Amino acid sequence: MTMRVRGFLMLVAALAIVGLASCGHYTCGVTFGASTCSPSGPGLGGGGTVISASTATSLVYFVNNSSVGAAGYAGTTFAPLSSYSSPSLPTNFADVMALVNKKFLYIPMGDTTIQGFSIDRPTGALTPIPGNPVTVAGGVGTADGAWSDPLGRFLFVGSEGFADIWVFQIDPTTGALTATAGSPFTTGLSSADIMTVDASGKFLYVGQGSVSSGVAGFSIDQSTGTSTSGALTPLAGSPFSLAVAQIHASPTGEFLLGVAEIQDAGAGLQATDQHIYVYSIDPVTGAPTAVGSPFATTMAPFDFAISPNGQFVYTVGTAVNTTTPSPIEGFQMDATTGLLTPLTVSPFTSLLTPSQCEFDQGGTALVCLDSSLTVLTASPSNGSLSHAADLGLGGTPFATTD
User: I want to staple 196 with a disulfide (CB 3.0 to 4.6 A). Which of 216, 239, 249, 282 is the partner?
Assistant: First the structure.
């Protein structure tokens, strides 16, 4: 998230708090520059329907004004967790948070600290990890976003405005973070806005907020139990001149997908690129090569979600050259070639027009943020989407686990 957009969001949040201060505790979400707030439910300071974490098939954690909210989904019910105590946060500048191995939640706070929690699945309760909050050492940037490798061994924390990537080793039992020697890593970077790790866990790719900055690539030290475990080494040719800024790696194959715009551009800016791009990842060198790209979209996408089985891709964005949200578009992805084919039912004009969507690990619940959080059910066989339930409140960032 750019500093200009962050300032805009801070102003929106401040106005929302002033305007709604007499109504109690509110949780706010910002989508494409619009702020929407709803009274929080039980466990978040208000009243209404609740759901037990033990009966929920998916849990969703989200950052609101000053705490971490939690909700559960099961069937047609999407509601705040019962008996949930919402941990307070010192600031509300989190950009991207990481939910690792269904056990740990890490929230970079937009300063030099990371809030870390362990998740008790039967209750949904969050407990601070040992050493919480964790401070990032060195560097000149702030800790804005967090991502992990597929095995949950390492946490990569980026700074959107500066060339800093902090790497931490994750204790598999407690979730405690240990800084990797040499961190922060800065070579070939102007910023570390968006990050993703390939399916093998060997390569880290970094979107730097604009196409002109390129996509940086690093190999990840695969050693275990050493001070350099998780250390980053720039790939030959990095940063790569790709046509993308927002990136995600396929969870099942060696492919890197991306779009030219990023979510931040939704706050008053207009997108023009009506494509999604696919690159194959060389399993030895990590170099990305375009395959059949670009693939045309009706909208100008800002982000996308890939199903956990790697077979379907869903884009979110706006009508080209406008800030008007567009319906979700869906594509089937060939697991061998990486080629994308539009789904026959796409775009999903009868569904919401969200700014962000994220799957739970099972791949059937697609959680999206529009004016509030909503669950869509996704077919793992044909990629069709249908509306399941609405929460009526929400916040960003958010993370989902089954």
Answer: 249
Paired residues of 305 in beta bridges: 314
pLDDT tens by residue, 111-134: 999 999 999 999 999 999 999 999
Nearest to 288 by CA among 356, 240, 246, 330: 240
3-state secondary structure the chain: CCHHHHHHHHHHHHHHHHHHHHHCCEEEEEECCEEEEEECCCCCCCCCCCECCCCCCEEEEEECCCEEEEEEEECCEEEEECCCCCCECCCCCCCECEEECCCEEEEECCCCEEEEEEECCCCCCEEECCCCCEECCCCCCCCCEEEECCCCCEEEEECCCCCCEEEEEECCCCCCEEECCCCCECCCCCCCCEEEECCCCCEEEEECCCHHHCEEEEEECCCCCCCCCCCEEECCCCCECCCCCEEEECCCCCEEEEECCCHHHHCCCCCCCCEEEEEEECCCCCCEEECCCCEECCCEEEEEEECCCCCEEEEEEECCCCCCECCCEEEEECCCCCCEEECCCCCCCCCCCCCEEEECCCCCEEEEECCCEEEEEECCCCCCEEEEEECCCCCCCEEEEC
Give which of 85, 72, 173, 177 is closest to 121, Cα–Cα.
72
**CATH node for 3-401:** 2.130.10.10
Look up tokens 């407990």; give the residue: 127
**What is the percent of the chain with per-residue pLDDT over 90, rounded to a whole number?**
75
pLDDT digits (tens, 9 = 90+) for 310-356: 999 999 999 988 888 999 999 999 999 999 999 999 999 999 999 89
At residue 13, the pLDDT reads: 35
Which amino acid appears at position 19 of this protein?
A: G
Is pTM beyond 0.85? Reply is yes
For 215-240, what is the mean pLDDT?
97
pLDDT (tens digit per residue) in 209-221: 889 899 999 999 9
Domain limits, the chain: 3-401
